[in-house]
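Title: Prediction job returns without error message
Component: structure pipeline
Severity: low
Priority: P3
Assignee: unassigned

Description:
Job completed but the reporter wants confirmation the result is attached to the right record. Sequence as submitted:
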Amino acid sequence: MQALAAIQKSVGALPGATPLARGMSHFGEHALGWMAISAVGAAVDAPRRRDWAAVGIGAVGAHAASIVVKRISRRRRPSDPSVKVGVSTPSQFSFPSSHATSTTAAAVLIARATGKPVTVAIAAPMMLSRLVLGVHYPSDVLVGSALGAASAAAVLELSKRYGAA
């Protein structure tokens, strides 16, 4: 709990940090923002349409995987007077962070679609935003990100195996 409170007192105290984190939270909810990015990419980048479709498939699949793990682990969200909760959540379970999971999967697949090394630049801010908002423990976002990377790897393997992308 001390690490989470320290993040809120440092990064979370920066001007605009909490509203920005809240906006990111809404964008990442149920992987909807990543599905929108996937759809736009597929619509405007015909030569890489399959790669952009993989972004949406990976984000949704990763989100689904995180929900399964949440239902099994049933870890409660942080609850301590030293931690301020900055956004509402659809469930009371925190492990793993679905936002970190779907965002990391999308980021890995966006990097593939664009050929740009953007994974960390996309995933890290979302992971940090979940801590700033006080809705996850650091381990929730780290494991969520690892699950997202594994989900993206599965999409890439299926793409190779079946020629889908």
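Comment from assignee: result matches the submitted record. The two ends are 42 Å apart (CA to CA).
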